[in-house]
From TrEMBL:
Protein species of origin: Gracilibacillus salitolerans
PANTHER family in the cross-refs: D-TAGATOSE-1,6-BISPHOSPHATE ALDOLASE, D-TAGATOSE-1,6-BISPHOSPHATE ALDOLASE SUBUNIT GATY-RELATED
Transmembrane segments: none
Sequence positions that bind Zn(2+) 2: 114, 144
Keywords on record: Metal-binding, Zinc
Protein name from the UniProt record: Ketose-bisphosphate aldolase
Amino acid sequence: MKTYKLSNVITLKQALEQAEKRNYAIGSFSPRYTDMILPILRAGQKKNSPIIVQISQKELERYGVSPYEIGEVFYRKMQEENITVPTVLHLDHTKDFEVIEQAIEAGFTSVMIDASEHPFDNNVVISKKVAEYAHSKGVSVEAELGMIGTTDFVETDKDEELYTDPDEALEFVNQTKVDALAVSVGTAHGVYNVRKPTVDLERLKAIRALTPVHLVLHGGSGVPSEMIQAAMEIPGGGVSKVNIATDLELSLLGAIGREERMTNAECKALSEDLKAKGQAAVQKTVEDKMENFLLSANKVDSFKY
């Protein structure tokens, strides 16, 4: 395992403990392309906000990039840009243990095992194995209970949705010892073209009442800010991590006048002028999310880890 000595690159558990106490959420932003890591980091530094940079297994495959490439660019840009705000490097939805091992070796400080398509008992066994392994390496673990739908099949390959059962959440967390739980309460990955996003606050409150685990909302792109903020402000600590990917890619593609997604190699091959336009657009979107959506701007000064 590679070791990096950046004191502000922390685990997901360390980050979410702080956000949950103060009723805001940390954005888990997916660059999808290695050249889009930079604007996410710059946005966090400018807004004095903690940051989570993430990539999922399906995104690694779809965009033609490896955990090692993500890790190398992430740590290099952290140092080159002198990023000082608390930052997490997170592996999102992942099915294969081998990819989790690679990410941890590449310096990721948090991983997500997604065995939500399995029956409850199998999900517990798989998630517990990952938690034991990652914790032995000093890495946080997120898991999923219930199934979060999708509209574009980029991050996950299922459009089925199954809401998280609060009683099962308690049992699941107790058995697996995961640090964070992605819950299915109405949001979906991708763009909301037909269905409207919802957040089942009563279900979130019931989950919170039964378990102290940090709660994660996937499918944050396109959800109205008032829905997200209501989920963050649940008594006892609401959602403290919100995943945002599609909005960033739409900003990038719009800025460079393109409709179709690229591969990572195609993005790297863009002219410097086009790439700079794309990076500026992504940075602006991330800054807006931190300021107006997640309420994480200017929260670093009260951050302790």
